[in-house]
Amino acid sequence: MQTVDWLWILHPALAVVLIYPLIGMVVRLGVQARQRRVEKAKLPPTTGRDHADLGQWLSAGVVLLVLVALTVVIVTKQPAEGFDGGPGRALQLLLVLVGTVVSLLALWRVKAKGYRLVFALLTWAGVLGLGAQKEVWRLSDNPLSPEFWQSHYWAGVGVVGLMIFSMAARPEILKELRWRRIHLSASILAAVLFVAQGITGSRDLLEIPLAWQKPTIYACDPVKRVCPPFAPPPMPAPPVGAAGS
What we know:
Blueprint: H1 3-8, H2 10-38, H3 47-76, H4 86-109, H5 113-131, H6 146-149, H7 152-168, H8 170-175, H9 177-207, H10 214-217
C-alpha cells in the first residue's frame, strides 16, 4: 500500500475505532437516562449529564470525521500540480474547510440561541459545500432514484445534519419535553443511518482499488465484467559484466 491508500482508509478506520464505540456508549447512557427519568430506576444522577456530554463529543466527532473523508477525497483525486482549478480553487476550499471547523468549535461554545442557529447553519453549509465538489463520488443526486437512497455520501450528510441539530438544540433538549421527543426521533433516525453507513461503507471499500491497480481497474467494462490484463512486471536487469562473458 502507498501513502494515498493509507489516507483513503483513515476515514473508515477512525469510524470503527472511535465513532461506533462512542455510539454504543451514548445509546446506553440515553436508555439509562430515560429509565431514570420515566421509570424512576435507581441509576446514578449523573447518567443524563454523561449522556449529553458524550453526545456532544459524538456529534462533533462525526462532523470532523466527514470533513476528514471529504478532504482526503478532494486532495488525493489528482496530483497537487494537476489540481483542477489551480492554487486559487485550492485556497478557496481550504478556507471553507477552516471556516467549517471554526464554526463547529463556535457551535460547541456559544450559548445564545441565535448564535447556535447561525453556527449550526454555517457548519452544515461548509459540509455541503465541500461535499458538492466534483471530486466527491455520489451514486446519484436525484432523490427519486434508488441509487440516491443507497449512497454512502448522502446517508453521511444526513447523519451530519442530525448531529449538528443535536449540538445546536442541546439546551432546549435538556429543558423541554417536546424537544426531548424530537431528539429521540432524530436519534432513532440517526441510528438507522449509522447502520446504513456501516453497510454502504463496507460495500464502497470493496470497490476502491489500490493506487497502483486503478489504471487497470478503471479500464474494466462493468457491463461485460471483463478487465484488461495487468502489465507484465519489468524484466530484471542483467548482472554487471554478464553481457561480456
